[in-house]
UniProtKB/TrEMBL annotation:
Membrane topology recorded in Swiss-Prot or TrEMBL: Peripheral membrane protein
Example of a GO MF term: heme binding
Subcellular location: Endoplasmic reticulum membrane; Microsome membrane
Domain of life: Eukaryota
Source lineage: Eukaryota, Metazoa, Ecdysozoa, Arthropoda, Chelicerata
Protein's recorded name: Cytochrome P450
């Protein structure tokens, strides 16, 4: 009996001892796991690109100034070609050098678009989609655009028809000082809308052209990779509610433009007149109809996606071209000798009735070199639209961690003295070789439409519009600012930088 009690007593102590040891092992394991995690975190921090320390929640936003691209460029000397910085709560990588930018933007891990940049527009669309949905919608959009004539001579004919109206307006002014901004934007918007919605807006629809211009301006100036409203959660909504900085009016404009696009889609669905028009809306609706007759459900085609694609295609084709032409015309007022060289070349090669064609740009190398230098000099999209890393990306001994947002300092790439001699100077000759007779089409550190697979899908269309408008105006008019007034280059910042309006004189040439 005594032996049994002793045996029970020892069993109880054994269990207590074992439990204590087990608990101690768990504590030790948890401690070393935590320590290992902390060490991994510190190691990952050491591998992350260097950058400045900002403020809690706001990050480095308060210190960027009015020209963030130049602020980032000035950090290059201290932090190098790849900078990490918190913009609001978002951990952001800024690419400050061409080779680094090309490597990272061509990496599969950088193919995703950052989710919040276009969020304020409340639209879907291939520009904001990622993964398989992006591939599907972009592929359809690009193939449809080519089928409709974008990037081909048919698209050029449409541009020229609208351009003639603008040329006639400039003739009527007889060289008097005039702010071309509104008429130029209206002309460009009419072009892109006619191809997207299948009709030219009538004279009784001026309000829709005004709405389109207001939409483009509000969308571009109220967003950007360094815009606090695009980065700080809830800030844009607060600005809208409390009517700060025009964000409430911008929101109203977005809603009205959305209604306009929905109305055009409905017109195509309900009106027999519009069902047979070869335009983007009908092509998309036909695809939707074909899919509805099959059992295929794994796709992203919908009317909501159609609305988003139309909105973002318009936005991409409108403001960037408008800004580019605004810069070019102002630059021609400053550099009269360059303007004259362009005019002489156009007249020698095209004569008064010939038309410059993008596919034949080699015939007018100096003129097209001026356009290329305009994109470099102005860099009217100074910071590239933001990507998001969908995996860790190794580069130059650093790790860009998954979830990071990535933006490219395109202005920095275009003003890097390693690649560009005296980058602050406007010199078209830097894009020419063989004694000025041949274009250098793919120079290093040149990326006006970004780099990699996710670059701007409208590059060809943009070049065509810029070339047609620029060549026709320069061929027919001598451009200058008002007598006694110097050209001004006051910048209105946003995702796309515009020049503040200034009157110019368009004196018709005898050709």
């Amino acid at each position: 009996m005594e032996l049994e009690k002793t045996h029970a007593y020892f069993n109880f102590n054994d269990i207590t001892f074992i439990m204590s040891c087990f608990l101690l092992l768990i504590i030790i394991y948890a401690f070393f796991t935590l320590l290992q995690g902390i060490l991994r975190w510190f190691k990952s921090q050491q591998k992350r690109p260097p950058g400045p320390v900002g403020l809690p929640f706001l990050g480095y936003l308060p210190f960027l100034g009015k020209e963030p691209h130049k602020t980032f460029w000035n950090m290059k000397e201290k932090y190098g070609d790849i900078i990490s910085v918190y913009l609001g709560p978002k951990y952001t990588i800024v690419l400050n050098e061409y080779k680094v930018a090309k490597e990272i933007l061509s990496h599969p891990g950088s193919l995703d678009r950052a989710p919040d940049l276009f969020k304020h527009l409340d639209v879907a669309g291939f520009v904001v989609e990622n993964g398989a949905r992006w591939v599907e919608q972009r592929r359809f959009t690009m193939s449809t655009a080519k089928g409709l004539g974008l990037g081909k001579d048919y698209w050029g004919i449409l541009i020229m028809e609208e351009l003639r109206s603008l040329i006639e307006k400039l003739r009527e002014l007889k060289g008097k000082p005039f702010d071309i901004s509104e008429d130029l934007l209206s002309s460009l918007n009419t072009n892109i809308l006619s191809l997207l919605i299948g009709r030219r807006l009538g004279k009784d629809e001026v309000d829709k052209l005004i709405l389109s211009a207001e939409f483009a301006e509000a969308a571009i100036t109220k967003m950007g990779p360094s815009n606090p409203a695009s980065l700080v959660p809830g800030l844009r909504k607060a600005f809208e509610i409390f009517r700060i900085a025009g964000y409430d009016k911008a929101r109203e404009t977005f809603l009205r433009f959305s209604s306009f696009i929905k109305e055009e889609i409905k017109r195509h669905k309900t009106s027999q007149t519009f069902r047979d028009i070869p335009d983007f809306i009908n092509s998309y609706l036909e695809k939707l109809s074909d899919l509805s007759e099959t059992n295929e459900k794994h796709h992203a085609f919908s009317e909501t996606m159609l609305e988003g694609n139309l909105t973002l295609l318009f936005l991409g084709a409108s403001d960037t071209v408008y800004s580019s032409l605004g810069w070019l015309l102002r630059i021609m007022c400053k550099y009269k000798d360059i303007q004259e060289k362009v005019h002489v070349e156009l007249m020698e090669i095209l004569d008064k009735d010939g038309r410059a064609k993008y596919e034949e740009r080699d015939k007018i190398p100096y003129t097209f070199a001026v356009l290329m230098e305009g994109q470099r000099y102005a860099s009217n999209v100074p910071l590239g639209t933001t990507r998001r890393a969908n995996q860790d990306i190794p580069v130059n001994g650093y790790i860009i961690p998954k979830g990071s947002e990535i933006t490219t300092n395109l202005w920095g790439l275009h003003h890097d003295p390693v690649y560009w001699d005296e980058p602050e100077e406007f010199r078209p000759e830097r894009f020419l070789t063989n004694g000025g007779t041949k274009l250098i089409k793919h120079p290093l550190s040149y990326a006006p439409f970004s780099l990699g697979r996710r670059n701007c899908p409208g590059e060809t269309i943009a070049w065509m519009e810029i070339l047609y408008y620029f060549s026709e105006i320069l061929k027919r008019f001598e451009i200058s600012t008002a007598p006694g007034v110097e050209p001004e280059f006051e910048v209105i910042n946003g995702l796309v930088t515009r020049l503040a309006p200034q009157q110019m004189c368009f004196k018709e040439r005898n050709i």
